[in-house]
Amino acid sequence: MRYVKELSNKNKIVSDSTCEALYEQQNEAYTIKFVFNGEETCEINKRKFNIYPDTFAVVNAGSNFSSKIDSINPVNTFAVSFGESFISDFHHSFSYSEENLLDGKEAIKMPDFMESLYPFAGDMRFNVLHLKNQLDKGLKDEMLINEYLYHCLLNYYKIYDKEVVQKLDKLSFIKTKTRQEVLKRLTLAKEYISSNYNQNITLEQIAEQACLSVNHLLRTFKEAYEISPYQFLMQLRLNRAKKLLQTTSYSLNEIVGLVGFECPSSFIRLFKHTFNITPLKYKKSRLN
User: Fold this and answer.
1) What is the pLDDT of residues 102-120, one digit of tens each?
2) What residues contact 249, with CB distance under 8 A and at least 6 apart?
3) Helix (H) or strand (E) holding 18
4) What's the confidence (pLDDT) of residue 36?
5) Which of 31, 40, 122, 181 is the Cys-Cys partner for 81 at CB 3.0 to 4.6 Å?
6) Is 144 left (phi over 0), alpha (psi -120 to 50) or beta?
7) Do the beta carbons of residue 240 and residue 276 sit within 8 Å?
């Protein structure tokens, strides 16, 4: 089922479920994109990555954007776009002190987000899924919808602070511009791992995507994220395997292959070590 909900303040929500789609456009508004099952292949300003149910993507207004869905099963997508006045007012109220807001001295500026993948979990996930559920049931109250969208932005800013601002502070470079550039390149590395997690990728390939040497990648990735690229990859594979065990009827051997493990025994050992339960026991517990 597809529907488009455009509010009087130019905020817009698009929900879709499709097996095949191709969109190419210049993004007109600040947009947050979600995928609830399957995957969506996206390209922002010639940079490709995949959105999965455990991530969401942010696209700035004016960016060249395209997306593609090619799946046997319907892929459920959900996109929230913000009107210029709504997001500029939110950014202004979030970024400045109460004194400056009351005085009205600060010029309102448009935000410039780091276009990337972010973790779709916690309050952000709860708020968006609740909004979609209400809209699916026919919610039309614009005031309530805008409250949901306000909390969507509020949760994103909190995630942005954790994933970008705090990570910048962890990098050991003195110059701010250097830290910003390194973090952008590390973000490319994370996107590449997230989009190709089920492939036999190498450190050299990840470093090439990030335009860093292998050793530079290893050092700065650990500084920013407190884990190595390999540990990040293993966490990703295990968490996505956990989701497949929870929501699909795939066999254990099928899931092992789908998430990129070559050996079922090593997968079972890692899964038990990480979650303190075997994959089969976890699957049975979720079914019960």
Assistant:
1) 555 555 667 788 899 999 9
2) none
3) strand 12-26
4) 96
5) 31
6) alpha
7) no
Percent of the chain at pLDDT > 70 equals: 94
- Residue owning tokens 């190498």: 202
3-state per-residue secondary structure call for 246-281? HHCCCCHHHHHHHCCCCCHHHHHHHHHHHHCCCHHH
Any residues with CB less than 8 A from the CB of 282 and at least 6 apart, and which?
242, 245, 246, 271, 275
Boundaries of every domain in the chain: 3-167, 171-226, 232-287
Question: Which class would CATH give 171-226?
Answer: mainly alpha
Distance of alpha carbon 61 from alpha carbon 113, whole angstroms: 10
Q: CA torsion, points 219, 221, 226, 232, in degrees to nearest 10?
A: -130
CA torsion 260-263-265-269 (nearest 10°) is -40
Kindly indicate the confidence band of residue 287, based on its pLDDT and cuts at 50, 70 and 90: low
Q: Could you give the CA distance from residue 269 to residue 277 in angstroms, rounded to a whole number?
A: 10
Would you call 72 helix, strand, or coil by DSSP?
strand
Q: How many residues does the chain have?
A: 288
Which pLDDT score is estimated for 111? Answer: 76
Topology adopted by domain 232-287: Arc Repressor Mutant, subunit A (1.10.10)
CB-side exposure of 9: number of CA atoms within 13 Å? 17
In 3D space, the residue among 103, 106, 113, 108 whose CA is nearest the CA of residue 89 turns out to be: 108
Segment 196-202 shows an average pLDDT of: 95
Total H helices, total E strands in the chain: 12, 8
Just give the CATH number of 3-167: 2.60.120.10
Q: For residues 176-200, give the mean pLDDT.
A: 95
CA distance 255 to 54: 17
Assign 96 a pLDDT band (cuts: 50, 70, 90).
low
